[in-house]
What we know:
By secondary structure, this protein is of the alpha+beta class. It is built from 10 helices and 12 strands. Dinuclear copper ion binds near residues 126, 129, 204, 206 and 207.
Amino acid sequence: MRLVAITVLLVLGGCSRNPSVLLDHAGPHAAWTGWLFWVFFVVTAVVWTVVLAMLGLALTRGHSRSRLGLPPEMTPASDRRLGAWVATGVALSVLILTGLVGASYAVDRELIGLDRNTSRSIEITARQWWWEIRYLDGDPNNQFTTANELHVAVGERVKLSLKSNDVIHSLWLPNIAGKRDIIPGQENSLVIRVDRAGTWNGRCSEFCGYQHAFMGLTLIAQPPDEFQAWLATQRQPAPEPAGEEEKRGMQVFLTGPCAMCHNIRGSGTGYSSYAPDLTHLKSRSSIAAGAAPNTKGHLGGWIIDPHGLKPGVHMPVNLQNAGDFQALLAYLESLR
Ligand code: CUA
């Protein structure tokens, strides 16, 4: 009973509503790699089973002479049989390994073919410990920067240009494509295509310092018209502060330490990419690269004590009087 319970628990442990695994693929890159996984899995499972079965057979069907402690009798016929078995084993191994190398090569060719004809370029700069995301456009007026949340249109081939200014990071979107290292001083790229609308988890998969574990990226694939609407909103500058409190909050933001690192387009900040762009902060689902949900309470806690949530983060502690703090929060909450 205990064994059954443990087995059931282990099997159910793999269940999840939104598993971040290659096998739940949402694009052709991950689909091809998933296919390769199954080829390897089936072939190696068959080989493993056959080898163990033969070993079991050899152990149970011991030679009558060896039971008497005598060496096996070698005749020309048994010699030939042994030779044939060894030759078959070597030939099968070579055949299987060549087949697997061939399958890997074929998948590689398919993946390279998928990387052509991209229709959009997005620049992603990995930082300790968040993602700066810049939507490039032929018209500079249409370019904008956001953070930690990557939006794409379903079915569109997107080229991600990957950069780093500090240490080595690595981008991994398990349901979409394989990992790609991001190395300072070198631009790598990754082409993705997402075929199902949905929200997918991404991670930094190269140890990059204290908060490596909290360097999450959210990928949101939207139907094309929804994506265009999102683009249009993001291109806009931040909304004007509406009431007195929001106006006061904007002044707190601009005259305090916030504006030294963060940018809010349309508010009069300079351009700084040292910290996430906050122009449309409230359009995002989480703060601090996925470390907390984007609610007023979490945002307030993050401003006052960022190190309580992400020790070692570059954001300093910000203490204001209660009125200024509430006004600042009201202003940030208005950045939709
Ligand atoms: Cu960036 Cu780990």
